[in-house]
Design goal:
- The complex is a heterodimer of chains A (113) and B (114).
- Chain A has strands at 4-7, 10-13, 19-25, 31-37, 43-51, 54-57, 64-66, 76-78, 87-94, 103-104, 108-112.
- Chain A contains no helices and 11 strands.
- Chain A is globular.
- By secondary structure, chain B is mainly beta.
- Chain B contains no helices and 12 strands.
- In chain B, strands 2, 5, 6, 10, 11 and 12 form a 6-stranded mixed beta sheet that branches. Chain B has a 4-stranded antiparallel beta sheet with strand order 3-9-8-7, with no helix packed on it.
- The chains are: A mainly beta (113), B mainly beta (114).
- The interface between A and B is medium-sized, with 27 and 23 residues.
Chain lengths: 113, 114
Amino acid sequence: NAGVTQTPKFRILKIGQSMTLQCTQDMNHNYMYWYRQDPGMGLKLIYYSVGAGITDKGEVPNGYNVSRSTTEDFPLRLELAAPSQTSVYFCASSHDRPPYEQYFGPGTRLTVT
Amino acid sequence: AQSVAQPEDQVNVAEGNPLTVKCTYSVSGNPYLFWYVQYPNRGLQFLLKYITGDNLVKGSYGFEAEFNKSQTSFHLKKPSALVSDSALYFCAVRDGAGANNLFFGTGTRLTVIP
C-alpha cells in the first residue's frame, strides 16, 4: 500500500545544477500536484496535472518544469538551481471527483548552495 | 480569490485539556474545507473535510471541526489533547474554479504539554 512515493528524500545541489524530483502514485488518481513548503509560509502550488499529457502552472512555477506521460508519474524538473529553490517539495494526488482530499508523499528536502 | 488564514502560529495546551486551532477562509461559492496534520519530517496527512451537510465534522484521531458560514470559520477541535497531538496543522480551502487545487494556510504549531 505505497500511496504517493517521492525520491530522493534529500539532495544538495550547487547553484546552476539541474535535477529531477520523482513522484509516483499507485491509487490511479488523475490529479497530481507539486508543492513547495518554506518555513512559516505554508504550502505553495508549483504545478498540477489533471491527467496524462495535461499540466498547468500553479502559484509559483518559475524555475520549474513538469511532465505527465503516465497516470502514475509526475516528475518535477529544476533547471539552473538557485538558492531560492531551497525548500521541501511535496507531491500529492487526488481523485477528480468529490470529496477531493489530497494524499501527500513524504517530501524531498532540497538545499541549493 | 480563495484564501485561508490561521491567525495563531503557535498554540500550547495542557494534556487532557480541550484544544482549538483556528481557521478562517475566503472563497467564492460553496467552500470545500480541509484540515491536514504534519508530523516532523513527514508529509501532510488528511484529518477531516467539510463539503456539505452537518456543520460539525468528525475526523481522524478524535479531531472534529466546526463549520460556521456566517463567521467564515472552520476551527479544528479536540475535547482532550494528547501529547502525541503535537504537530503542525494546516487548514486548506479548495479552489472551485481550478482542477482541485488547494490553498493552504501558513500552519499552526500545536504543542501539548504533559
